[in-house]
């Protein structure tokens, strides 16, 4: 039963002069359940979070070209200018190959500001809103992936892509113990490497309950390995004698991101580069299956070994999070073409806002030593699994060319 705290106007309790005090003014000694007003009572007040939110906002708008903000002085525009100065690398901008985009531009700016100038205490409560922004961004990503876009390239390439995704993720998760990598970091590596997109490292962060340093470290591992693989793969392709079409598919299924895959393809030949861009839709269409697979495997593992202290991935996640269910629903509706194209683009503009704000908060919150503390083992795991995947992809496509399968 709700109880009322009563005091007189002088601050002492007195019969006949008592007055009800609003719950927001109750002393801290009163139990929280008696003081709370609603489910939103756990949130900080606007005055407390405003400094941190403003810091995230200004970093976001000076990092990326975001919808509704005609600001020409952004990192995105600076990197585009530098790409023109440096010149293309196999037809691709250098900073695109290095995955400079709406997530990592804001993350980089936040890291520089936080580690060079420091973060005032007054910002920290606002920065905690990253835990609200990440699930919201994942939900809004649902309409971004459409299976039919990948199926246009054919059922055969899609099947190979799915098999390689599952094998890569499985090898990375299994290899965590061999390379003595924390299972949370291994999960992030598995998601980013299997899907061929470093964005997935950020998407998995709230699902796996990974630390920020693990996420940035694993992302750097995936990007760096993709850069090295984009130079290695054309050399291996020449040895196998793959056709331009087959090598374009190999690039799309073996490299860290779309720009790196295109760079690898164009290094092999002009037509191979065009095919790498064409088959990139296959990788993109099945991306949700990759991070959902990693999450579900680690969630089941946590339930199976609930008393094992070394099992950290998804620790604290007792049920499938509602935002994951909503994401799957949105993905399903998009695959049924129930989202019109203008809605698809408008939602993705909001995704860019959301992830830019969250990345800025993450960068401000991370000391560089926390990122470096996770060491080189993550890169060793990434490289070992990535090389095995390249061998499997090249072997599979060599067989397809030799026996005339899939028209390659």
Summarize the structure.
The chain has helices spanning 32-35, 46-61, 75-86, 94-97, 104-116, 124-127, 130-141, 147-151, 155-178, 183-195, 199-208, 212-240, 244-254, 258-268, 270-285, 287-304, 322-335, 341-365, 368-372, 377-403; strands spanning 6-7, 19-20. With 408 residues, the protein is an all-alpha fold.
Structure description:
The model is unreliable at 1-24 (pLDDT under 50). The protein has helices spanning 32-35, 46-61, 75-86, 94-97, 104-116, 124-127, 130-141, 147-151, 155-178, 183-195, 199-208, 212-240, 244-254, 258-268, 270-285, 287-304, 322-335, 341-365, 368-372, 377-403, and strands at 6-7, 19-20. The chain has a domain at 135-407. Strands 1-2 form a two-stranded antiparallel sheet. The chain is globular. With 408 residues, the protein is mostly helical. Helix 13 (244-254) crosses helix 15 (270-285). It is built from 20 helices and two strands.
């Amino acid at each position: 039963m709700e109880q009322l705290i009563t005091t007189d106007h002088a601050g002492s309790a007195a019969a006949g002069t008592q007055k009800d005090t609003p719950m927001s003014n109750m002393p801290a000694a009163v139990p929280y359940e008696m003081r709370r007003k609603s489910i939103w009572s756990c949130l900080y007040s606007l005055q407390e979070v405003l400094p941190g939110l403003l810091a995230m906002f200004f970093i976001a708008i000076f990092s990326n070209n975001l919808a509704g903000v005609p600001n020409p002085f952004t990192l995105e525009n600076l990197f585009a200018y530098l790409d023109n100065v440096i010149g293309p690398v196999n037809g691709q901008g250098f900073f695109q190959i290095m995955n400079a985009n709406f997530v990592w531009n804001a993350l980089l700016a936040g890291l520089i500001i936080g580690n060079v100038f420091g973060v005032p205490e007054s910002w920290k409560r606002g920065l905690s809103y990253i835990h609200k922004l990440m699930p919201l961004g994942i939900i809004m990503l649902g309409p971004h992936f459409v299976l039919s876009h990948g199926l246009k390239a054919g059922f055969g390439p899609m099947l190979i892509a799915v098999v390689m995704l599952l094998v890569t993720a499985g090898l990375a998760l299994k290899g965590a113990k061999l390379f003595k990598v924390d299972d949370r970091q291994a999960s992030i590596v598995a998601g980013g490497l299997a899907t061929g997109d470093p964005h997935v490292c950020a998407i998995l962060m709230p699902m796996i309950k990974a630390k920020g340093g693990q996420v940035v470290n694993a992302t750097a591992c995936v990007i760096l390995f993709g850069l090295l693989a984009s130079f290695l793969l054309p050399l291996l392709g020449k040895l196998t004698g793959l056709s331009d079409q087959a090598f374009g598919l190999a690039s799309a299924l073996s490299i860290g991101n779309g720009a790196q895959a295109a760079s690898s393809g164009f290094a092999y030949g002009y037509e191979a580069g065009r095919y790498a861009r064409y088959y990139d839709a296959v990788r993109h269409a099945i991306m949700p299956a990759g991070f959902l697979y990693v999450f579900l495997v680690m969630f089941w593992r946590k339930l199976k070994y609930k008393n094992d202290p070394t099992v950290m991935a998804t620790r604290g996640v007792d049920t499938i999070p509602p935002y994951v269910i909503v994401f799957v629903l949105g993905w399903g509706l998009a695959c049924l073409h129930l989202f019109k194209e203008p809605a698809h683009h408008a939602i993705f503009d909001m995704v860019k806002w959301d992830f830019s704000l969250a990345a800025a908060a993450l960068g401000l919150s991370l000391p560089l030593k926390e990122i470096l503390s996770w060491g080189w083992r993550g890169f060793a795991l990434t490289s070992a699994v990535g090389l095995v995947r390249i061998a499997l992809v090249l072997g599979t496509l060599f067989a397809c060319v030799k026996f005339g399968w899939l028209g390659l």
